[in-house]
Amino acid sequence: MAMNSILPDAAPIAGGVLGRVQYWFACFFAVGWTGVVCGGLYYQFVEWEYPCPLCIVQRMFMLLAAIGAGVIVRRGMDGTVSGRDYMMGWGLSLVAVMAGSFASWRQTMLHILPGDKGYGSEVFGLHLYVWAWILFSASVVAIGIVLAFAHSTADRALPPSYRLPGQLVLGFLGVVIAINVVAVFFEEGFHWFLPDDPTRYELLYDLGILD
């Protein structure tokens, strides 16, 4: 009798805790990928390394993955996240990280031959696109894990205090998306395609600012 009276109350409590963990994981996921893009922007504007077309494609998928998690964050700001919201948000992120994994794998394979120094700087002995491949692949596993718990975390009430962190996450994501759009426009200018090895900001030459 005692066990039967405890179990019905314990399940909602556990689901509520997992719901909060899942919300914070979505925040971490969105901020994490947005931060990775900021790292790329650092190398672009501080180290003066121009991103190649495959680099830009990987950034796009990183931001798309962050947007998928952002869907969950935005829904959570209203108090609850439904199962449909989880499926839509994490589904979008899953498509993004799988496509990004292929793009980063492709760039890694282009520089895998002995003697090839690769493209751009290294971080802890690995090029940025190799790290991207690792992170994209790890994200596939992470999304699979959180989706496995989505049925028990859906429709759980979230505290009103979660609204401000959600606003900060989405604001950060929006600012970085805007910066990235401007950065790509400056590099590509009024051309349809980026060169394989860009060496300048084409927009400045298209406008006649630089000769």
Walk me through the structure:
- The protein has 211 residues and is mainly alpha-helical.
- It has one domain (22-206): Bromodomain-like (Up-down Bundle), CATH 1.20.1550.
- The chain has 7 helices and 2 strands.
- It has helices at 2-45, 53-76, 83-110, 128-148, 150-153, 163-188, 202-206; strands at residues 122-123, 126-127.
- Strands 1-2 form a two-stranded antiparallel sheet.
- The longest helix is centred in the first third of the chain and has 44 residues, at 2-45.
- The model is unreliable at 1-11 (pLDDT under 50).
Radius of gyration: 21 Å
| Low-pLDDT stretches | 1-11
Q: Name the CATH class.
A: Mainly Alpha
Topology pattern, helix = H, strand = E: HHHEEHHHH
Strand order of the largest sheet: 1-2
What is CATH's topology name?
Bromodomain-like
Query: How far do the termini sit from each other?
Result: 85 Å
The assigned CATH architecture is Up-down Bundle
Shape: globular
Brief overview, please?
The protein has 211 residues and is mainly alpha-helical. The protein is built from 7 helices and 2 strands. Helix 1 packs parallel to helix 6.
